[in-house]
Amino acid sequence: MNKEYNLKDSLTSGDLGVSLMQFLSEHYKKESVLGTKEEDIKLKIDMYIDGKACQVKTDYYSHLTGHAAIELAEINFSLKDKQFGGTRPGSYGVMCNHCDKQVIKPQRQPNVTAGALLQQPLLDNCSNLIYIMPNVGVIFYNPKTLNTALWYWMKNHTNQDKVNDKTWQIQPAPNPNYISLSLLMPHSYLTRKQEVIVKKGYASQQGESYMVEPYKFITWPEIQNLIISEDKNRYWQPMMNNVKKFIDYEYNKKIHREMIEDAFGIQLLHKSVY
C-alpha cells in the first residue's frame, strides 16, 4: 500500500464520512436522508441534504501530505485471465419485446472505471460533492464546476503551487484486485477561492483565467468543537461508533488510527465514546 496515498472507499471509511455529515446536518438544522443502495450504484448519490443529492468522499491523508487525491481511474486486474484492464464477462438486463419480463443478455464490461469526479451519473445527478479531509475541513463543491476546473488545472497549473515533489503527479494506490490512479493536487485548491488558468499568456498574447470556490468550507477546528460539545446530537453516537470501526479496522495503519482519534477529539471528550 502506497504510503503517500490510498483514498479509501471501504465500507468503514464511507460510513464514517456519511455519519459525520449526518451529525453536521443535524447541527445546522438541515434534513439529511441516506440514499438507497441503487442510488449509490447507479446515480452516485450517497445522501440528500435538504433535498439536494450529494456524494461524500473522505481523504484520510490530506493533512499529512498537503495534497487532495482526486481519483481519475480505477483499473481492475483479472486473476483468471492474468489481464490488466481490457474487458471482463458481464451481462445486462433488457425488457423482452414479446413479454413483460426482463431478459439477461451477455455483454462484456470494461475493466477500467472513471474516477468519481469524471463519472457522468455524478455530474448529472449530484448537486454537491462533499470532500472530507480530517484535520483540514469539509468542502462542499459543485461537481460540474470542479470537473471543469480539474481539466484546466491539469493542463496549466502543473508547474506551480508545488507542495512537494509529489504535487501534480498521478499516484497509483494498489489494492488486492485493482489499482486506483489519483491526481495529487494542493488541498488549498479546494478550500479557498482559486484561479483557473484557461489559456496561458505568451509574449504579447494575453492569458485567460477565471476564479472558482466551494459553496462552503467548514474548518476542522470548528467541526472538532462541535463533536466535543454536542454529544446530545442524535447522530453523535452513530458517528463515534464508526470512528471506533475505523480505529479497530486491522488494515488501517497506526498513524491513521491516531490521526482519526486526534481529529475527532477522543482524548478531549468528557464521556466515554464506546
Write a compact overview of the structure shown:
The chain has about 270 residues and is an alpha+beta fold.
Describe the structure.
The structure is a single chain. This protein is α+β, with helices and mostly antiparallel strands and 274 residues long. The chain has one domain. The protein has nine helices and 17 strands. The protein has a six-stranded mixed sheet. Strands 4, 5, 10, 13 and 14 form a five-stranded antiparallel sheet that branches. A two-stranded antiparallel sheet has the order 6-9. β7 and β8 form a beta hairpin. α1 runs antiparallel to α8 and α8 packs antiparallel against α9. The longest helix is centred in the first third of the chain and has 17 residues. The relative contact order is 0.17.
Q: Using the alpha-carbon principal axes, give the shape.
A: globular
Weakly predicted, low-confidence segments = 1-13
State the order of secondary-structure elements, H for helix, E for strand.
Answer: HEHEEHEEEEEEEHEEHEEHEEEHHH
Straight-line distance between termini: 29 Å
Q: From the alpha carbons, calculate the radius of gyration and give it in angstroms.
A: 21 Å
Structural class of the secondary elements? alpha+beta
Structurally, the number of domains stands at: 1
The whole-number mean of residue pLDDT values reads: 87
